[in-house]
């Protein structure tokens, strides 16, 4: 095994192969598998053009792929719901009890062959584990017991409910005159009519069992999983229905070897396709790029204030694990460090890979420097007077007046060494020659030192008052 292939890579390939094989077995022979194959070819071409540097073609295919995915979800919403239902691990706990259906096959089979002898067209659907609400439409609700008279009256030529299928659910006739999805498989013989196409179409999408009586030939057919079997006699039909519905019969033992090697050709083909895709999306594996990430500190203790961070950014070496990951040069990375254990003075904080959030497909191989040093100081808060910064002299006649500020005191906060040295704060410059008695002027406080801030920033009101007058 190549040294750059991990155990996780092998598990990744096997899981994707298993999922794709399940989709293949469920949708085989339907139009959905044809669309999936076409989408796989387009995806392969997209990766090939991207690998070869055909930027315009790869861009067009990428934009087209987005539209195709939306169209597939809209067109195949019923098939997608059915696939998700089959993936559900709880579906066996939620399945309806089918014991009421068991034991009625004798009467049903005899009635069906009786109608076949009279060339009465019949389409009878038996619901099994998977729900049919999304696949069966336009039915008339009956919810009645199964009896020969009821079945013959439903499918009697000319009766209001004869055109369509009857749904048997939980041992009762739930609906009549139902419409079923038609199969579009090109392999269906031309001799088969609409009833048979409807039976095949429903069986391709779920695990229901459908019995069809041909109006032209009087033949009885049993349809399951997209396959049609001709029933020659009443006992043969009873045995087939009993085999499909009786869950108490032990399933034949199949060894793990038989499970692995059964249907080997599609399994190998899907495995090779998954390996090719894995190789395409890991073409950039091992490429190392260095990017710069600024340092952001969180949780600095309340009584401390940050003075300096050295350095303010770190160099991060990134290793690409997949071509699907974004280019490292376009990432906006930050190193978010926990500074809750910081003490006064200088503290060293280690930078770990967990401090940097990365998208999938990238891994950190190195961080330089591996630690940063921060300098903190105790936080101090005090009140200082506000003074007006006058430029020039007051006009003649106003020399006896004085300039006052409101508020006259503000609270500042910052490093203790810087706050302790501040005795007062000044407003923005004021031209004293233009001051007039009775006028009010608004000015802001000048910016303080970098780490010192006003606890509450408010404009300062400046006016002239007579000296000695109480404000």
Which overall shape is indicated by the principal axes computed on the Cα atoms?
A: elongated
Query: Can you summarize the main beta sheet?
Result: 7 strands, mixed
CATH superfamily of the largest domain: DNA integrity scanning protein, DisA, N-terminal domain
> What's the architecture of the largest domain, going by CATH?
3-Layer(aba) Sandwich
Portion in strands: 25-35%
**CATH fold name of the largest domain, please?**
YojJ-like (1
Radius of gyration: 41 Å
Provide the number of structural domains: 4
Could you tell me the number of beta strands?
A: 20
Task: Kindly provide the name of the CATH class of the largest domain.
Answer: Alpha Beta
Number of helical segments with 4 or more residues? 12
Q: Tell me, rounded to a whole number, the average pLDDT.
A: 81
């Amino acid at each position: 095994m190549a040294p750059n292939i991990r155990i996780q890579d092998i598990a990744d390939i096997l899981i994707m192969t298993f999922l794709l094989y399940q989709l293949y077995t469920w949708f085989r022979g339907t139009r959905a598998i044809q669309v999936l194959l076409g989408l796989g070819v387009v995806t392969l071409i997209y990766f090939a053009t991207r690998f070869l540097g055909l930027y315009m073609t790869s861009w067009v295919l990428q934009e087209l792929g987005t539209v195709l995915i939306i169209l597939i979800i809209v067109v195949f919403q019923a098939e997608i719901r059915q696939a998700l239902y089959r993936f559900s691990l709880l579906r066996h706990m939620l399945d309806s009890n089918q014991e009421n259906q068991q034991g009625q096959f004798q009467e049903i089979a005899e009635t069906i062959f009786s109608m076949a002898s009279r060339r009465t067209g019949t389409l009878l659907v038996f619901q099994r584990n998977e729900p049919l609400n999304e696949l069966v439409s336009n039915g008339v609700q009956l919810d009645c017991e199964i009896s020969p008279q009821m079945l013959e009256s439903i499918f009697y030529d000319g009766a209001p409910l004869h055109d369509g299928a009857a749904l048997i659910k939980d041992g009762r006739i739930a609906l009549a005159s139902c419409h079923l999805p038609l199969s579009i498989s090109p392999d269906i013989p031309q001799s088969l009519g609409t009833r048979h196409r409807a039976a095949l179409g429903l069986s391709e999408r779920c695990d229901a069992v459908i019995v069809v009586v041909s109006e032209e030939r009087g033949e009885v057919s049993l349809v399951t999983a997209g396959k049609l079997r001709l029933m020659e006699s009443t006992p043969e039909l009873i045995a087939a229905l009993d085999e499909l519905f009786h869950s108490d019969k032990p399933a034949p033992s199949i060894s793990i070897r038989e499970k692995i090697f059964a249907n080997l050709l599609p399994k190998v083909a899907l495995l090779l396709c998954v390996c090719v895709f894995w190789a395409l999306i890991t073409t950039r594996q091992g490429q190392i790029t260095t990017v710069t990430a600024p340092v952001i500190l969180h949780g600095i203790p309340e009584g401390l204030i940050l003075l300096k961070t050295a350095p303010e950014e770190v160099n991060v070496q990134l290793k690409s694990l997949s071509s699907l990951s974004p280019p490292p040069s376009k990432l906006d990375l930050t190193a978010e460090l926990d500074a809750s254990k910081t003490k006064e003075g200088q503290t060293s904080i280690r930078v770990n890979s967990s401090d940097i959030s990365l998208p999938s497909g990238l891994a950190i191989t190195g961080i330089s420097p591996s630690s940063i040093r921060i300098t903190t100081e105790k936080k101090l808060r005090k009140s200082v007077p506000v003074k007006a910064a006058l430029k020039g002299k007051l006009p003649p006649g106003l020399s006896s007046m004085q300039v006052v500020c409101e508020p006259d005191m503000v609270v500042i906060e910052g490093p203790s060494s810087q706050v302790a040295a501040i005795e007062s704060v000044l407003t923005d410059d004021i031209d004293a020659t233009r001051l007039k008695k009775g006028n009010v002027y608004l000015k802001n406080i000048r910016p303080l030192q970098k780490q010192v801030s006003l606890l509450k920033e408010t404009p300062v009101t400046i006016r002239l008052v007579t000296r000695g007058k109480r404000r």
